[in-house]
């Protein structure tokens, strides 16, 4: 089993089957490892690679080679879906990821519903799908992970976020209508990218945290729609990882209700405890991104070794990496998991 | 204060706390119609209601959506009462420049602090999100602000906060402003290291901190 390919290892862990050791991955999307040190004048750079399938694939390949993460992850931002749904984005720079410059709608009620089957052929969804296709062709044994922005985060990037958060309570029917729309888009997007080579779908939903929403809204809105995407991924025969940010101490039971094959959480969640409380959950995480940026390699290595000892199923950074994170620290993380540090 | 007056202020507080914007506006108008003091109604009605909401927020019974709606109810009442507020010792003549530091677009925490400072009577100038360090300094000088409030949710942008303090020092205006910092990855230790005047772990505590720094400890 020591010669097990990275694709096989990740797939087995997600299916609760025994493996030689934990995989070490970085999904892409909100958790991408396209740090500035990976880019140079001989290869694709950001922000151009956000907009070009070949550049995106090549950059993902370089990230994989330079960091030692055992997957290929696309895209490198969370703006693909909101942009297609009409929000204006700021493409960012080499060291600063794209962000929403202006949300498309002032309220949930104002959101214009379009045909999701049509819009997934548009814009950068097509770019990501194509990049996944290139990557799978070139890397049969390494898992290609397509990262989607979760339903709540996407909705809060299409409708002015504070209004959206209020309307979850004041106009729940309007909010459901937007989330249903966004979710149908994500389901189509997931199917399309799976058809074109993605092995695993990752859903990053940073706004969908119990810390912001509270347990009840988290359950009624976040869990409900995230699960619709998870179920659709399963219906397409693939596995799904969900990342939730923030302090989930008041929403632990809701976390366990997510239909993901692994749950990834922030550094402030004790994964060992989560695993003890909910043995059915595959846990993923959660090497502090602050430590990765500001700490030294030895500390990163110690922190990583503790997670491995605690039996965390998949080792990964805890949240989005800063683009100024040093490769030596990222490699200390990946090499420790592989037993080479 | 008469029993009738107290009862009305209590109903106003409850309307805010129970997130009823229309009722808060209606009761605020009733305060004026009955000739009660507008500032008393703000203090014992609107602010009391938001404070109760803020307390539940700290206790994690209310979350961000509830707090935002309570703030809207408070604003609805404030829009009616504010033109009738006479001189008092609240924070109304103190200015705060607030923003999310460059590189970060998470602004929920900043918005909560802004709302709560406004509730406490501060004049708050919101520079928005992704604000370069120099812009904080320029705005604070131009507005003759008392306080500069810096927010970030990201570890990657924390160092920008230190740059604001460095620029203030380089421009020799450091002693004109109090600098406060907040956001989930921060700590008192970080605040001390970059030479800020204060750190608040929660939105409600940012208000107490600001009042203390500008010498308004006992003001509403």
Structure description:
The complex is a heterodimer of chains A (341) and B (220). Chain A has 341 residues and is an alpha/beta fold. Chain A has a single domain, classed as TIM Barrel (Alpha-Beta Barrel), CATH 3.20.20. Chain A has helices at 6-14, 53-67, 80-84, 116-119, 123-138, 151-158, 161-170, 172-195, 210-235, 252-256, 271-277, 289-294, 297-309, 327-338, and strands spanning 72-74, 88-90, 99-102, 144-149, 200-204, 239-244, 262-265, 283-287, 314-317. In chain A, strands 1-4-5-6-7-8-9 form a seven-stranded parallel beta sheet, with helices on both faces. A two-stranded antiparallel sheet of chain A has the order 2-3. In chain A, strand 2 (88-90) and strand 3 (99-102) form a beta hairpin. The relative contact order of chain A is 0.14. With 220 residues, chain B is α/β, with parallel strands linked by helices. Chain B folds into two domains: 3-84, Methionine synthase domain (Methyltransferase, Methionine Synthase (B12-binding Domains), Chain A, domain 1), CATH 1.10.1240.10; 91-213, Rossmann fold (3-Layer(aba) Sandwich). Chain B has nine helices and five strands. Chain B has helices spanning 3-17, 21-33, 38-58, 64-81, 108-119, 133-143, 159-170, 188-194, 203-213; strands at 95-100, 123-126, 147-151, 178-182, 198-199. In chain B, helix 8 (188-194) links the parallel strand 4 (178-182) and strand 5. The A-B interface holds A 96, 99-100, 161-162, 165-166, 168-170, 210-214, 217, 246, 250, 289-290, 293-294, 320, 322-324 and B 19, 60, 62-66, 68-69, 72, 103, 105, 107-108, 111, 130, 154-156, 184-185.
């Amino acid at each position: 089993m020591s010669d097990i390919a990275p694709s096989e290892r990740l797939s087995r862990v997600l299916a609760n089957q025994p493996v030689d050791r934990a995989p070490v991955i970085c999904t892409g999307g909100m958790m991408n490892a396209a740090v500035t040190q990976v880019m140079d004048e001989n290869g694709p750079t950001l922000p151009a690679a956000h907009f070009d399938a070949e550049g995106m694939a090549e950059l993902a390949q370089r990230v994989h080679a330079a960091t030692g993460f055992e997957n290929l992850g696309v895209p490198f931002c969370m703006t693909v879906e909101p942009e297609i749904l009409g929000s204006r984005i700021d493409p960012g720079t080499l060291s600063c990821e794209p962000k929403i410059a202006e949300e498309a709608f002032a309220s949930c009620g104002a959101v214009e519903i379009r045909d999701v089957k049509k819009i997934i052929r548009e814009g950068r969804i097509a770019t990501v799908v194509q990049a996944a296709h290139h990557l799978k062709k070139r890397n049969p044994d390494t898992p290609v992970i397509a990262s989607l922005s979760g339903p709540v985060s996407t909705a809060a990037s299409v409708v002015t976020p504070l209004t959206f958060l209020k309307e979850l309570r004041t106009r729940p029917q309007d909010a459901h209508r937007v989330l249903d729309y966004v979710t149908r888009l994500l389901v189509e997007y997931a199917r399309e990218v799976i058809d074109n080579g993605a092995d695993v779908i990752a859903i990053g939903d940073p706004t969908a945290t119990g810390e912001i929403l509270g347990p009840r809204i988290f359950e009624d809105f976040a869990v409900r729609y995230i699960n619709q995407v998870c179920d659709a991924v399963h219906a397409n025969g693939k596995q799904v990882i969900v990342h939730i940010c923030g302090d989930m101490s008041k929403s632990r039971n809701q976390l366990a209700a997510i239909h993901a094959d692994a749950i990834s959480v922030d550094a402030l969640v004790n994964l060992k405890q989560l695993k003890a409380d909910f043995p059915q959950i595959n846990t993923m995480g959660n090497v502090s991104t602050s430590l990765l940026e500001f700490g030294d390699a030895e500390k990163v290595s110690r922190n990583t070794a503790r997670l491995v000892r605690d039996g965390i199923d998949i080792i990964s950074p805890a949240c989005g990496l800063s683009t100024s994170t040093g490769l030596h620290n990222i490699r200390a993380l990946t090499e420790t998991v592989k037993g080479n540090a | 204060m008469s029993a009738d007056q107290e009862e009305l202020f209590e109903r106003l507080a409850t309307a805010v706390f129970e997130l009823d914007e229309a009722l808060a506006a209606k009761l605020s108008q009733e305060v004026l119609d009955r000739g009660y003091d507008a500032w008393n109604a703000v203090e014992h009605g609107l602010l009391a209601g938001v404070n109760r909401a803020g307390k539940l927020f700290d206790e994690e019974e209310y979350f961000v959506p509830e707090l935002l709606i309570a703030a809207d109810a408070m604003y609805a009442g404030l829009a009616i009462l504010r033109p009738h507020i006479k001189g008092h010792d609240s924070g109304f003549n103190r200015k705060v420049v607030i923003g999310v530091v460059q590189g970060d677009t998470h602004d929920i925490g900043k918005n909560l602090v802004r709302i709560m400072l406004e509730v406490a009577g501060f004049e708050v100038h919101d520079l928005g999100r992704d604000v370069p360090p120099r812009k904080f300094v320029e705005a604070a000088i131009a507005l003759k602000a008392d306080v500069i409030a810096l927010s970030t949710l990201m570890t990657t942008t924390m160092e920008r906060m230190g740059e604001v303090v460095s620029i203030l020092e380089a421009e020799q205006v450091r002693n004109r402003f109090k600098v406060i910092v907040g956001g989930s990855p921060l700590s008192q230790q970080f605040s001390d290291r970059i030479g800020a005047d204060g750190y608040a772990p929660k939105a409600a505590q940012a208000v107490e901190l600001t009042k203390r720094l500008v010498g308004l400890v006992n003001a509403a």
